[in-house]
Specification:
Elements lengths: L6 H11 L1 E5 L5 H6 L6 E4 L7 H9 L5 E4 L10 H11 L3 E4 L2 H9 L3 E7 L3 H14 L3 E5 L4 H10 L4 E4 L5 H10 L3 E4 L2 H4 L3 H14 L1
Parallel strand pairs: 1-2, 1-8, 2-3, 3-4, 4-5, 5-6, 6-7, 7-8
Helix pairs in contact: 7-8, 8-10
């Protein structure tokens, strides 16, 4: 088990597998391990201060980096002590957060950060552009995954890798998001965890070259 993940490792995994398993219940961890060869990373969206380290250790022992959704850990205070607890005791690859105030604090703790953004209007869209150089998240996740035009736009403008998730129900939707510019897609849909998104993209590319 890695003692510390670096961004180059994460990028390599995401580039080769294109899929992030979002885990909202402890029982889903079994399927993460079952389909680990198809999964780049895990977004852990469950647990408490009593269980989160156990969940992270089980997954990362299998070579899969874990990003903890900081706001979803029951009993965790999102202050310096709370981030110390995550960084020094739980030791995930990083955190997933919607709170811009946590990004700098987490990076000071040498944790990687995925900034999750719910794209509800053009103001949010512009805020991401205005703030990304100051916040410097390692990844930006755009929700929902159906906004392919937004994904494409950000992928052309920003140097930060773009992830997407939400409202993802088919393999075709995942591949469409990746083609639009998403570096990887996250999903709670366990049926999609077993799919090979990269295979579908290769087949699509080969088909286009024949016509």
């Amino acid at each position: 088990m890695k003692s510390r993940w670096v961004i180059e490792d994460i990028i390599e995994r995401m580039n080769s597998k294109k899929k992030i398993a979002s885990v909202k219940a402890a029982k889903s961890i079994d399927n993460v391990l079952k389909y680990k060869n198809q999964i780049s990373a895990v977004f852990l969206i469950t647990g408490s201060i009593l269980t989160v380290k156990k969940f992270v250790d089980v997954i990362q022992k299998e070579g899969i980096p874990v990003f903890i959704h900081a706001e979803k850990v029951n009993g965790l205070n999102l202050d310096k002590d709370g981030l110390d607890f995550l960084a020094k005791y739980v030791k995930p690859a990083g955190i997933l957060t919607t709170k811009t105030s946590l990004i700098k604090k987490a990076k000071e703790q040498r944790m990687l950060v995925v900034q999750r953004v719910f794209m509800i209007d053009t103001e949010v869209y512009q805020n991401v552009l205005d703030q990304h150089e100051v916040l410097k998240p390692d990844f930006i996740e755009i929700m929902p995954s159906t906004l392919c035009h937004v994904i494409h736009s950000y992928s052309q403008i920003l140097k930060t890798p773009i992830i997407t998730g939400g409202l993802l129900s088919t393999e075709e939707q995942a591949i469409a998001a990746i083609k639009a510019g998403a570096f990887a897609v996250s999903t709670t849909n366990e049926e999609l965890w077993k799919k090979d998104f990269t295979k579908g993209m290769v087949e699509s590319k080969e088909h286009s070259q024949l016509h």
